[in-house]
Design brief:
With 107 residues, this protein is mainly beta. The protein has one helix and seven strands. Strand 5 and strand 6 form a beta hairpin.
Length: 107
Amino acid sequence: MTAATAQKTVPLVNQKPMNVSITGKVLRCRRYDKKFYTTIITPAADKYSKPSVVEVRSNSRFAEVDEETSCSAVLGGFEGRSYRVTDKDTGEQRTIVPVNHFLDVVE
């Protein structure tokens, strides 16, 4: 790591690894396989940016549609099934391995 990169790191104050804090408005909520999936739209960083949309998974419903909410979640994920793609310009074939992420609410 270079000295310039080391200076740009942000200290993680009282933050556990893989934990995130989410604040926003509930767009929708669904139940599947004994879990609740809540879709949350977060505030945009500024008036020219698009807001982020995330889906969190929980054991119980914690917010209603159109309600503003906050929660803590643990980020997890796994590798999906690999597939091959061909670059249109060079004809080179590569293997792509997608990564699927999920957020579990800390209850």
